[in-house]
Design brief:
Elements: E1 2-7, H1 15-18, E2 27-32, H2 37-47, E3 52-55, H3 57-65, E4 70-76, E5 86-88, E6 104-106, H4 113-126, E7 134-137, E8 152-154, H5 161-166, E9 172-174, H6 207-218, E10 226-230, H7 231-236, H8 240-260, H9 267-279, H10 292-304, H11 314-317
Parallel strand pairs: 1-2, 1-3, 6-7, 6-9, 7-8
Antiparallel strand pairs: 3-10, 4-10, 5-9
Helix pairs in contact: 4-10
Length: 321
């Protein structure tokens, strides 16, 4: 049996694996609990701390571009649409997305995948020039060697995005842990206490309609969590990608069975049940071909936003299984 140290978030997608109910053929897993799982992202990109790790896809693309030796499998652990989740102050004179130009927008970090997806949508669907927006951040980037554009600024010392938004010093902000949903700086536990997601209007009007139309036209259901494996582990164990794919698929099937019955274990499951009306019965479809629209779009957006210097093919950064 191959001993592997594995870091995964505790979700209804991974629960069957982490409980031991779903085995990984040929593997004796050591599941490492990291809270929040975002902290594991940093340990992985900076220290290759695990053999297998959940990772934000934008962080993965940046880390690969900076020479970190791991490779992604087309196993998608989280998805969500991103027309929603960016709110505005009513007095900010933002009547349409284009009005964000010249404004200050709060986001946890410039490379956070939520921000990358939303900026890409704003640029490619609504004609917003991200370079004409000031992006205010309050956290460090996972990949410390990346250089930020000049229009990225930091929150003043001792203040928070939520406070600045509430006082009108920034005009728009990402909700939840991606921005103004926290009362203070990002910390272990990622406690809230900031501004509720439904307290202010969305920048994009009628987001549910916009997301459904966009998906129908593009086939893009934005990916978030993916699975990466250290390159030396892959080189020594060429059978491992298929074994991991089978195990994650079996664990996900337990979730899909619950979702089909309308049973939700958490807020994410509730979102999937809503999104299934648009994307179909499997909101977390695996495989490189099935995820091509989302992977290609994220690569395009990351390149447009100068997070990566070159634009790799999906086949060069994902194992084709």
């Amino acid at each position: 049996m191959l001993n592997l140290k594995i870091a995964l978030g505790d979700t209804s997608t991974t629960r069957g694996l982490k409980s031991g109910d779903i085995p990984i053929k040929g593997v004796k897993p050591e599941f490492v609990q990291v809270n929040p799982i975002i902290a594991a992202f940093r340990h992985m990109v900076r220290d290759l701390a695990y053999d297998v790790c959940e990772l934000a896809p934008t962080t993965y693309l940046i880390a690969r571009a900076h020479g970190v030796r791991f490779t992604a499998l087309p196993i998608v652990l989280m998805r969500r649409f991103h027309h929603h989740g960016l709110v505005k102050r009513p007095d900010a004179q933002i009547n349409e997305p284009k009005d964000l130009e010249g404004k200050i927008v709060g986001v946890r970090a410039y490379s956070v995948t939520t921000g990358v997806w939303t900026r890409g949508i704003l640029q490619n669907e609504y004609g917003v020039d991200p370079d004409r927006v000031k992006w205010m951040v309050d956290d460090e980037e996972h990949v410390t060697t990346m250089k930020l554009p000049s229009n990225v600024i930091r929150v003043p010392e001792g203040r928070s995005l939520a406070e600045l938004f509430a006082k009108g010093e920034i005009q728009a902000g990402f909700t939840g842990n991606a921005g103004i949903g926290r009362a203070g700086a990002p910390t272990e536990g990622w406690q809230g206490g900031g501004i509720a997601a439904d307290e202010y209007p969305e920048v994009i009007a009628d987001t549910a309609k916009a997301e459904a139309e966009w998906y129908g036209r593009t086939g893009i259901y934005p990916i978030h969590g993916i699975v990466v494996v250290k390159d030396d582990v892959l080189a020594d164990n060429p059978w491992l990608p298929e074994a991991l794919m089978d195990a994650f698929q079996a664990s996900k099937q337990l979730q899909l069975d619950r979702l089909a019955r309308g049973e939700a274990e958490d807020a994410t499951d509730k979102r999937y049940i809503r999104d299934m009306k648009v994307v179909g019965p499997d909101p977390l479809v695996f495989g490189l071909k099935a995820n091509a629209p989302s992977i290609d779009a994220l690569i395009q957006y990351a390149h447009q936003q100068r997070l990566i210097d070159e634009r790799p093919t999906r086949e060069s950064v994902f194992v084709d299984i």
